[in-house]
Amino acid sequence: MSKNLIVIGGGAGGPSAAAEAKRADPSLTVTIMEQGEHVSYAA
Ligand SMILES: Cc1cc2nc3c(=O)[nH]c(=O)nc-3n(C[C@H](O)[C@H](O)[C@H](O)COP(=O)(O)OP(=O)(O)OC[C@H]3O[C@@H](n4cnc5c(N)ncnc54)[C@H](O)[C@@H]3O)c2cc1C
């Protein structure tokens, strides 16, 4: 059965946590929920 991870917050911490979880388990389905208009961006 596939596993789902929901991350609340698209600031600095949320996408980092989501990426790390995906690295640890590539089969995870990860969804980031951000209440604001923009998510974190770093070139
Ligand atoms: C004035 C100021 C200046 C700063 N300047 C710098 C700087 O120059 N350099 C630096 O490295 N750091 C700086 N920081 C610190 C930096 O902003 C924080 O360390 C960093 O943003 C923390 O990241 P975070 O992901 O933990 O939290 P946040 O960045 O606060 O991200 C949390 C996110 O969760 C979202 N959220 C909250 N509740 C919900 C909900 N219920 N549903 C959906 N989304 C939700 C919010 O909208 C937000 O986008 C500054 C901070 C402040 C206040």
Key features of this structure:
two-stranded parallel ribbon, binds flavin-adenine dinucleotide
What can you see in these coordinates?
By secondary structure, the chain is of the alpha+beta class. It is built from one helix and two strands. It starts with a strand and ends in a 10-residue tail after the last strand. The model has no long low-confidence stretch (mean pLDDT 94). The structure holds flavin-adenine dinucleotide (FAD). Flavin-adenine dinucleotide binds at residues 8-14, 33-36.
Task: Present the secondary structure layout.
Elements: E1 4-8, H1 13-24, E2 29-33
Parallel strand pairs: 1-2
Bound molecules: flavin-adenine dinucleotide.
Flavin-adenine dinucleotide (FAD) binds next to α1.
